[in-house]
Automatic annotation (TrEMBL):
It holds the Pfam family MRJP. Residues 1-18 form the signal peptide. This is Major royal jelly protein. Belongs to the major royal jelly protein family. The keyword Signal applies. It comes from Coniophora puteana (strain RWD-64-598).
Length: 467
């Protein structure tokens, strides 16, 4: 009996060894077989693996050795690397009709971007080569005297210069090919504390790209951009008939982590501005929101405090191709909303009640930062948990993957250009000090990619037509 058992064991061992040395293994060598763990370790050793886990489910396996299907991590349109950021940490990107590229670097999210008065940090730059950048529109405008923090107030506050850039969160090129700079007026200090804004800091600055000179500065009153507001992103509608002044209108998001999030509307002709949807769930993060990027759970880091949830409010913003709907959504929520823009332009006595009643929940979008639109009227947005960018198609109510690539982590801002590409930054925000436990594991360079738009899509022109 003992002899028979030994013989059967030897036969099993032989078949096991046979499977192990059969290289390359047949596509599904283990199905229907009952190899024991010793046998599987032998398989692993013969196949050059030293780990003790299941050998057939490793993502690193060669395709020919795969037994259980494995995610390729890719999909949709291919992405192309355009720029590598070796210096400061970027968020926004804008691409002009002639291919000039601009980025911004917010001291409000990374102290290492904060200008101290003598560290030469810029908050807006033009991308000079594919790996270098230069302060824009001038080094001077990026150099507030004494730095971006005013230490003569108690406690210190962000400096209140209207003629200098403090902490820029977004750069956007409108349909008339002009660059607009969104200055939050806020920066972090060396302790990671976000300084309150002073009047003059939060502003919208227009730069003429033919002269590289500022042609308009709209400073927000403190009743519109509160000291603890965080103006995040902006979109423009330059149709002459949307305002009395005929100069068009801008819509901004206020993503303040301190809480009073909302949408800000600006008449570009009069400079008048007002808010809508403050305190509503549409512009806030969800309770106990947890996101995941690259398999890592994301909680907010709050130095000296217990970890918190991500409370970034409304952030991404995009206007439909015909200018009639504004799409928006927060980082800390998976919903995308829209509102007819006419409700936002209205600032009369009933206007906020009417605006709140006009918001439509369009879709779940995943976790996104910036949004963008093209002439297809697709609403592009990050889908970071899927290492992807997706788009919502208002015409059929669906959200789908546009690009998917393992190089994608935190998709920050996007810019559709007249060359028919969607440009976007991938900046590892999720691996930086803003996330618990606050260890900075970001690795330079940060990246900008682009992807060809579907159906020859391109940038939307002044009247909703192609530029
Ligand atoms: C696994 O199979 C081998 C080869 O048949 C045999 O020698 C060994 O005793 C088995 N191990 C266990 C734990 O069953
Ligand atoms: C940048 O340009 C250099 C020189 O032309 C080239 O070798 C490199 O691949 C480019 N890098 C990117 C990210 O495009
Ligand atoms: C700060 O930024 C510079 C580039 O501007 C970089 O070389 C340096 O490593 C950064 N320091 C930290 C602590 O991230
Ligand atoms: C700094 O604070 C002082 C004291 O409140 C004030 O007088 C000064 O205008 C501030 N400067 C800037 C640039 O904000
Ligand atoms: C930063 O923290 C240190 C240590 O707690 C403190 O001494 C210093 O005053 C803080 N600096 C500012 C600008 O708040
Ligand atoms: C503005 O004019 C366009 C045509 O150019 C029209 O489609 C749109 O409805 C008008 N919008 C308003 C608010 O009047
Ligand atoms: C919705 O529209 C997109 C873009 O045209 C298309 O790819 C997708 O198949 C459509 N989905 C459905 C369910 O109609
Ligand atoms: C895109 O444009 C090219 C060149 O004008 C044309 O050949 C092609 O058919 C267009 N594709 C689509 C999907 O419209
Ligand atoms: C946009 O349409 C208006 C009429 O609504 C017209 O006056 C204006 O010239 C058009 N602008 C462009 C750039 O097409």
């Amino acid at each position: 009996m003992a002899y028979l058992a030994a013989l059967l064991g030897f036969v099993h061992w032989l078949s096991c060894f046979g499977a192990a040395i059969n290289s390359p293994l047949p596509h599904i060598p283990l199905v229907g077989k009952s190899y024991n763990s010793t046998c599987l370790i032998l398989l692993a050793i013969v196949r050059g693996k030293t780990h003790s886990g299941p050998v057939w489910a490793r993502r690193s396996d060669n395709d020919e050795n795969k037994v259980v299907v494995t995610d390729t991590g890719t999909g949709g349109t291919a992405i192309e690397l355009v720029h590598l950021f070796y210096d400061e940490w970027p968020t926004g990107i804008a691409v002009s009709s002639t291919g000039r590229k601009f980025a911004n670097y917010p001291g409000g999210l990374d102290y290492n971007d904060t200008n101290t008065g003598n560290n030469g940090k810029y908050t807006v730059a033009e991308l000079v080569t594919n790996a270098t950048e230069s302060a824009y529109p001038s080094l001077e405008m990026n150099s507030p005297p004494g730095g971006a923090i005013n230490y003569t107030t108690n406690p210190p506050t962000a400096a209140g210069y209207a003629d200098y850039l403090i902490g820029v969160q977004s750069v956007v090129i409108d349909s008339a090919d002009r660059l607009w700079i969104v200055d939050t007026g806020r920066v972090l200090n060396e302790n990671g504390t976000l300084m309150l804004a002073s009047y003059g800091g939060p502003k919208l600055v227009g730069v003429d790209l033919t002269t590289d000179k500022v042609f308009q500065t709209i400073v927000f009153p403190q009743t519109v951009a509160f000291p603890d507001s965080y103006l995040n992103d902006v979109r423009f509608d330059l149709r002459p008939n949307v305002t009395a002044s005929g100069q068009g209108i801008a819509y901004l998001t206020d993503s303040s982590v301190e809480g009073r999030t909302g949408l800000v509307v600006v008449d570009l002709g009069t400079g008048e501005s007002w808010r809508h949807l403050d305190y509503t769930t549409y512009v806030q993060a969800d309770r106990q929101f947890v996101a995941y990027v690259w398999g890592k759970q994301l909680y907010a880091n709050s130095p000296g405090n217990p970890f918190g949830y991500i409370t970034f409010g409304v952030d991404g913003i995009a206007i439909s191709a015909n200018g009639e709907d504004l799409f928006f959504g927060g980082v800390g929520t998976r919903y995308m909303y829209s509102i007819p823009t006419s409700y936002l332009r209205d600032n009369s006595v009933n206007s906020d009640a009417l605006a709140q009643g006009a918001v439509v929940t369009r879709t779940q979008k995943g976790v996104a930062d910036g949004f963008e639109t093209d002439t297809n009227n697709f609403i592009y947005h990050g889908n970071m948990e899927q290492e992807a960018i997706s788009f919502f198609n208002p015409a059929n109510g669906t959200d789908q993957i546009f690009v998917r690539d393992p190089r994608i982590n935190w998709v920050d801002t996007m810019s559709v250009a007249t060359d028919g590409y969607l440009y976007f930054t991938v900046n590892q925000l999720c691996f930086g000090p803003l996330m618990y436990p606050g260890t900075d594991t970001r690795q330079r360079p940060f990246a900008m990619f682009r992807a060809k738009l579907p159906n020859n899509g391109t940038k939307i022109g002044v009247n909703g037509t192609t530029v």
